Hints:
Blueprint: E1 3-5, E2 14-16, H1 34-48, H2 57-62, E3 69-71, E4 74-76, E5 86-89, H3 127-136, E6 141-147, H4 173-186, E7 190-197, H5 218-231, E8 238-242, H6 265-279, E9 284-288, E10 293-294, E11 302-303, E12 323-328, H7 359-369, E13 384-388, H8 399-414, E14 418-421, E15 425-429, E16 432-433, E17 440-442, E18 448-450, H9 459-466, E19 481-485, E20 491-492, H10 495-500, E21 509-512, E22 518-523, E23 528-532, E24 545-547, E25 562-565, E26 570-578, E27 581-589, E28 599-602, H11 613-617, E29 626-628, E30 633-640, E31 657-664
Parallel strand pairs: 5-6, 5-14, 6-7, 7-8, 8-9, 9-12, 12-13, 13-14, 15-17, 20-21
Antiparallel strand pairs: 1-2, 3-4, 10-11, 15-16, 17-18, 19-23, 21-26, 22-23, 22-29, 24-27, 25-30, 26-27, 28-31, 30-31
Helix pairs in contact: 1-9, 5-6, 8-9
Amino acid sequence: MTFKRPASTGGRAVTRVLPATVAVSALVLAGITAADAAPLATDARAAAVMAPTALTGPQLAASWRGPLSTQGRYIVDADGNRFKLKAGNWAGAQGTWEGSGSESDVANHQADQMSNNIPLGLDRVPMAEILADFHALGLNTIRLPYADAMIDDDTLVPNYAVAANPQLEDKTPLEVFDAVVEALTADGFAVILNNHTTTYRWCCGLDGNERWNTSQSTQEWIDNWRFLVKRYKSNERVVGADLRNEVRRDWNDDPNWGEGNDHDLYKAFQEAGLRIQDANPDILVIMEGINWQGIPQGMFPHGRPTLTPVRNLSNSLMYSDKLVYSAHFYGFTGPHHTGSSGGWQNGETNDPRYRDLSPEDLIKVVDDQALFVTETGQHFTAPVWVSEFGTGGRGQTDQKEIDWFNRFTDILVENDTDFAVWPLVGWTTNGKINDNWALISYDDAGKRQSVLDPGDWRTTAWNKLVNATGKTGKVAKADRWNMLNVASGNQNAASWMRANAPVQTPGNRQGSCPDGQRLIGISRENRRGLCTDVNHPATGSGNWVVVKDQSTVTNDWAPWYEKLECPTNHYAAGFAFWDTAISGLLCAPATGTLPKTNRVAWFDRGDNPALNETQIKNDWAPYDYKGQCDTDEYLAGVAYTFNRFQGAPAHGKLGVPDALLCRPLT
């Protein structure tokens, strides 16, 4: 659905994201009153004393080294020091045309701002000055939205669109994007690429950009990503691939998380993430949850899942220290509210918006939808980046929006959360700011109005956020747990299996643990596994062994059951299934000798070990029996049966795993 975000008093409403089937009326806020302005100005003056520390380019560059990776809930730099993403969105390359009328008419572009499909502001201010203003905001990272259309666009950007940067004349949008990336990274900033749209049409309604594959195939989307991450591979300050922006419902169907079809965002992210790591193993892979499902009317189920599905179905990459999850929050939207105004005819629902929630409920909802992912020691544990949030500044009169922004930034501070404000750069026209959400606006003469300049009520909250204390310095190594899921296809996260899997177990669905991890648990019916690096033995240099029969079984450790067993000095690091029947065990070589003392963990009639409070939190296979070796053991074998009269076949399904062979690591 298209809905309108409040714009400044002089500008047109700003279209932002959510899916629906109807148009939405604009909401234009009036100017702030003199009575309101006085306390806000006082706040701004007080906050000015605490302005962010503005590092020069060389100072910022010297403060961290790429590439980035993760330890538990934190992002770290190449030296292992915490690198908190203090970021903003420099929009424009995703396109600003609103989808109707002439594209050459600025009135048909978002907030009367025509980007010409390159980052905004290059017509008004030299790039070095824009970057200096980013430094003044206290930023260390820039999220760069782009459209897939940019990659093959050989149209030259008109010279007036880069009037303040003549060195960019006669370049394509991609070449201008290259120059922006180079300038940002040379000035010390980390850059995260964000696939915002497919076409140049301004997001975010029924616009052909609802999913990664609405206006292109999944393969084309992945190919575009591989092209970009290879293009910037040598630049270690291009640190992240933010896979897709705000996936939402189209006319006919919802995106889903784990159903295995063409609308499965989980499956698409899995495939794209692994293919990106094949091309560039150093880059962070950033996955945003589902932005909207359902028809936005009270009689139909609807809502904003965000990262909630990750609790029961998380992703596993080849290099597990590269996964980051992200989420977006805006005060005028809600966990079940579209963000629209104007009644049900315009797609508005009767649910509360985030700004309507009590302080306690807002904290709980933000945690349930996103920040729970940072909980230590879970299969889903990863950093969470709130890669979009924001509100209108000058001209804002909605006290609920003001309160929400202050409370939401408090939540970010309290949780030491990585963030990126939307947007950084906008225009000022005839003395009025076009998009009062922008932190920095430039008029056609290059004069600046910033959130740090007098008159913007957001100054206090912004300075509080950027200056907040949090984790710094070295981050201790965190245990890693990763889920495997082959219910809807292969999930080979191991580099050896990715290179060799196609010829090893044809016709089967394979899952293999990320590099540096081993298989420690298997579920009975839903084809899941659990991997970990806790007490992980050193991996040998030889080939893996794919066990498909009982030829390597050393003794009858599960009488009357068929068994798969890894060869001597090999440990299980993956599996293969045919439907729900286990059909193969993927065994990696260890460097040294592994003990062969047997312990059999049966889970044909219940979880083993039994569920407890800790395991419930870490339930990597909900609604299914599962077996798990201890962390000081390695999984060496699996027992199963096709005999209906022995064991406890799950709902009549045969060949499902019934027991694990666990052996001590030392």
